[in-house]
Recover the amino acids of this structure.
């Protein structure tokens, strides 16, 4: 797979404060990468640097063969961006905003505009001034604006803020479809980790301006999941706090919670349970992205 974005030893400071410190990573073309970290970790600064909006103190960046330091306009022609500030003109209507930006991006297509308004549930409000839109409506319009030109790279900073559950589900579905059908490379920043888990191929963990870990969820899980909590729905009841040599809690009449040293012991354990009773369901409950996030950060919290 080709590399879409390459960053090497990237540094950025403001007023003597080091925001990014020797940040290096690669993003494969057509992948979806989640930028994770607390407020102030440097996520938004990375997005702004990659877009050529601000300049680095040092380091190297290449996006589809372009250097953001000198090729900012070229990068902006092939990318779309959604930030916390939607970047919309509030005195214009929704459809007027999309028409304006489509002409600015040299991709005016009225059919495309109407399709996006319908896709993001803004068809009926398209002639209403954006200043009178709700927060969720502004966010949906910003997303429509970002993908007007069918960008090769899409940068999204908290794209689901202000959306209701249906809106969140629709946005994530649309992003995944765009990635799969058009091969769009997506860089996604969000504090709502369970939303990222369903669509990201890789994660970058940021802490105090440094990347402290990176990899796929499976790679992160294999490295950091030292203690496995396995919930089993079964007809087996246990006496005491151990079964087959492993710590266990009886959660209710049909649920047991095991503390296991690794995933390797799960199959043998389930085989022992099946010798005595039925198993309806078995689930690891501490390998979700949020749990792994805190394990990665560990003492850096």
């Amino acid at each position: 797979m080709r590399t879409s974005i390459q960053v090497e030893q990237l540094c950025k400071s403001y007023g003597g404060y080091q925001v990014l410190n020797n940040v290096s990573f690669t993003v494969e073309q057509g992948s979806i990468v989640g930028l994770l970290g607390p407020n102030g970790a440097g996520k938004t600064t990375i997005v702004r640097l990659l877009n050529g909006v601000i300049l680095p103190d040092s380091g190297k960046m290449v996006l589809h063969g372009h250097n953001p330091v000198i090729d900012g306009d070229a990068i902006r022609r092939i990318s779309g961006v959604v930030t916390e500030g939607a970047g919309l003109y509030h005195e214009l209507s929704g459809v007027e905003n999309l028409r304006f930006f489509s002409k600015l991006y040299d991709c005016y297509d009225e059919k495309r505009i109407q399709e996006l308004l319908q896709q993001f549930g803004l068809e009926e409000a398209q002639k209403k001034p954006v200043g009178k839109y709700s927060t969720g409506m502004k966010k949906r319009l910003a997303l429509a604006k970002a993908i007007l030109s069918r960008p090769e790279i899409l940068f999204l900073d908290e794209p689901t803020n202000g959306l209701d559950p249906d809106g969140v589900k629709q946005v994530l579905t649309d992003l995944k479809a765009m990635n799969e059908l058009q091969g769009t490379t997506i860089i996604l920043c969000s504090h709502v980790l369970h939303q990222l888990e369903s669509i990201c191929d890789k994660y970058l963990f940021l802490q105090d301006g440094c990347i402290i870990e990176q990899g796929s969820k499976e790679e992160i899980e294999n490295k950091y999941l030292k203690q496995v909590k396995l919930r089993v729905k079964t007809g087996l009841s246990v006496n005491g706090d151990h079964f087959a040599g492993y710590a266990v809690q009886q959660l209710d009449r049909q649920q047991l919670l095991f503390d296991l040293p690794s995933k390797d012991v799960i199959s043998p354990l389930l085989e022992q349970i099946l010798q005595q009773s039925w198993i309806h369901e078995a689930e690891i409950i501490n390998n979700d992205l949020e749990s792994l996030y805190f394990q990665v950060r560990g003492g850096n919290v």
